[in-house]
């Protein structure tokens, strides 16, 4: 397995890069110049910085890496044009990112960890547990490679791929600062959504930063017992604690909370569940995003039928809860979080076993 011998230069924010160059005796304008090469022009090699002196490029090469994600696979939906990218990291691990095209612009859903340790029952990302956190430059690269590959500008970012963003808190916060930097892609904070399963202390910590991003809570149940059956994190943080943290987030930021609710047939999609959900959300400035659960082969959860999804929405609206049904995207390309990565590893494992068996047979002969 490969390891980084030097830090990746793309993980330096503008202030850090400025300090490094100042220590190297460079003029102030060099920081802006180099930062824009890295984060606007999205170069993949130091020597592409054609207006930077060769000796300075060599100094940077001696101190830093400049890594690029390797494209392993790209699947594009014939239904809606959604593209799913499987990227290989420097250490051989792979992660997924998704490009979704809307009328209002292109949205990229990124992973924040290799795998996940949260254990949500309906998510493929967590089936093999957590391998490691993604570093800042790797999260940036997910966005940069997709923009570079497609030639299309990314205007919205969703931290809702593999991993729990608040479980990689420091790297995620730095990523948010850099992706919105005026010298980089300069994506508006209001065009960024961070999804969490509900790590209460980190929600409160995030609130105190007073960012203008949208906080999305993966709720998926209206009572603690049902939620525990779907999400192990519910054993540590109750719905009441999460909702209190959400109220604090709204008080600190003025940003409406989004609640993600995956509808699982026979588990959380009844009229009674809708009424309970409306009750616990009463008085919170929020929006509910209903998601017909995306089936994965390792679980036996079934998707709520269309009629029952509409009924659930109508029940919530009756109680004046702002609600939409998320448009299904990428179903024909293993759209659920972690599905493509899991199938890639399963195939790789099967091929390895086959080769080992072939080798045994050859030795017997």
Shape: globular
What structural category arises from helix and sheet content? Answer: alpha/beta
Question: Uncertain spans, ≥5 residues at pLDDT below 50?
Answer: none
What radius of gyration results from the CA coordinates? 22 Å
Helix-strand pattern, N to C?
Answer: HHHEEEEEEHEHEHEHHEHEHEH
Mean pLDDT, as a whole number? 91
**How far is it from the N-terminal to the C-terminal residue, by CA?**
33 Å
Q: Describe the sheet with the most strands.
A: 10 strands, mixed
The number of helical segments is: 11
User: Strand order within the widest sheet?
Assistant: 1-2-3-4-7-8-9-10-11-12
Count the beta strands.
Answer: 12
Question: Which band does the percent of strand residues land in?
Answer: 15-25%
Task: Based on the model shown, name its key terms.
11 helices; alpha/beta; two-stranded antiparallel ribbon; 365 residues
General description of the model:
With 365 residues, the chain is of the alpha/beta class. The protein contains 11 helices and 12 strands. Strands 1-2-3-4-7-8-9-10-11-12 form a 10-stranded mixed sheet. Helix 5 (169-179) links the parallel strand 7 and strand 8 (192-196). Helix 1 crosses helix 2 (29-39) and helix 9 packs parallel to helix 10 (306-318).
In short:
The chain is built from eleven helices and twelve strands. With 365 residues, it is α/β, with parallel strands linked by helices.
Explain the layout of strands and helices:
Elements: H1 14-23, H2 29-39, H3 54-63, E1 70-76, E2 83-88, E3 94-102, E4 105-110, E5 113-115, E6 130-133, H4 136-150, E7 154-159, H5 169-179, E8 192-196, H6 200-207, E9 214-218, H7 224-230, H8 239-253, E10 257-263, H9 271-281, E11 286-292, H10 306-318, E12 323-325, H11 339-364
Parallel strand pairs: 4-7, 7-8, 8-9, 9-10, 10-11, 11-12
Antiparallel strand pairs: 1-2, 2-3, 3-4, 5-6
Helix pairs in contact: 1-2, 4-5, 6-8, 9-10
């Amino acid at each position: 397995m490969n390891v980084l011998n030097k830090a990746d230069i793309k993980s330096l924010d503008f202030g850090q890069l400025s300090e490094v160059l100042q220590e190297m005796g460079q003029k102030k304008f060099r920081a802006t110049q180099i930062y824009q090469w890295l984060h606007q022009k999205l170069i993949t090699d130091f020597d592409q910085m054609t207006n930077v002196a060769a000796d300075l490029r060599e100094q940077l090469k001696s101190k830093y890496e400049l890594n690029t994600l390797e494209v392993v696979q790209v699947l594009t939906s014939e239904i809606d044009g959604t593209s799913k990218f499987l990227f290989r990291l420097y250490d051989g691990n792979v992660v997924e990112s998704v490009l979704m095209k809307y009328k209002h612009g292109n949205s990229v859903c990124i992973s924040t960890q290799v795998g996940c340790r949260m254990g949500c029952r309906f998510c493929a990302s967590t089936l093999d547990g957590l391998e490691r956190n993604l570093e800042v430059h790797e999260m940036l690269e997910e966005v940069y490679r997709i923009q570079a590959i497609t030639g299309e500008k990314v205007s919205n970012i969703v931290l809702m791929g593999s991993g729990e963003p608040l479980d990689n808190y420091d790297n995620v916060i730095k990523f948010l600062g850099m992706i919105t930097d005026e010298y980089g892609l300069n994506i508006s904070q209001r065009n960024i959504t961070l999804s969490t399963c509900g790590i209460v202390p980190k929600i409160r910590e995030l609130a105190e930063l007073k960012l203008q991003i949208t906080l999305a809570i993966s709720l998926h149940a209206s009572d603690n017992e049902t939620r525990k059956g779907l999400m192990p994190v519910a054993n540590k943080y109750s719905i009441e604690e999460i909702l209190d943290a959400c109220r604090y987030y709204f008080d600190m930021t003025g940003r409406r909370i989004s609640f993600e609710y995956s509808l699982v047939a026979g588990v959380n999609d009844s009229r009674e569940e809708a009424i309970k959900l409306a009750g616990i959300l009463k008085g919170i400035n929020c929006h509910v995003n209903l998601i017909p659960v995306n089936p994965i082969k390792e679980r036996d959860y079934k998707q709520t039928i269309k009629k029952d999804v509409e009924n659930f929405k109508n029940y919530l609206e009756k109680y004046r809860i702002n609600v939409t049904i998320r448009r299904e995207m990428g179903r024909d390309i293993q759209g659920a979080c972690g599905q493509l990565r899991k199938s890639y590893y399963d195939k790789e494992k099967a091929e390895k076993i086959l080769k080992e068996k072939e080798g045994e047979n050859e030795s017997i002969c």
